[in-house]
Design goal:
There is one protein chain. With 101 residues, the chain is α+β, with helices and mostly antiparallel strands. The chain has a two-stranded antiparallel ribbon with strand order 1-2. β3 and β4 form a beta hairpin. It is flat and about 65 Å long.
């Protein structure tokens, strides 16, 4: 790809795993970086690279070894205090909903 060249949605679709029609929908919804040259949508090399980067998926963290030598899989973090945050007690919820507990 040349850094100064601009690609039509049909040409850009050859580099991306989406159709030209999808690119046009995303252009209209302003979901992807693009240019308007003379009223026609186009994509620079940087725009196409940015779209590729938008779909990148980060790898999972490596399992950490435990004292026994077995690999421990990473666990999702859980809230440490169940009362923290915008939680209501059963009585508070009953009052708001105007029902019995």
């Amino acid at each position: 790809m040349d850094s100064l060249r601009h690609y039509t949605p049909e040409e850009a679709a050859e580099f991306l795993p989406v159709s030209a029609a999808t690119l046009r929908k995303w252009i209209y919804a302003r979901k992807v970086p693009h240019h308007k040259l003379g009223g026609n949508p186009s994509f620079s090399t940087e725009d196409i690279r940015a779209m590729c980067a938008m779909s990148a998926v980060a790898p999972l963290p490596e399992p950490t070894p435990t004292a026994s030598g077995e690999a421990e899989s990473p666990q999702p973090s859980e809230p440490t205090d169940p009362q923290a945050g915008p939680y209501l007690t059963v009585d508070e919820a009953a009052l708001i909903l105007r029902c019995s507990t």
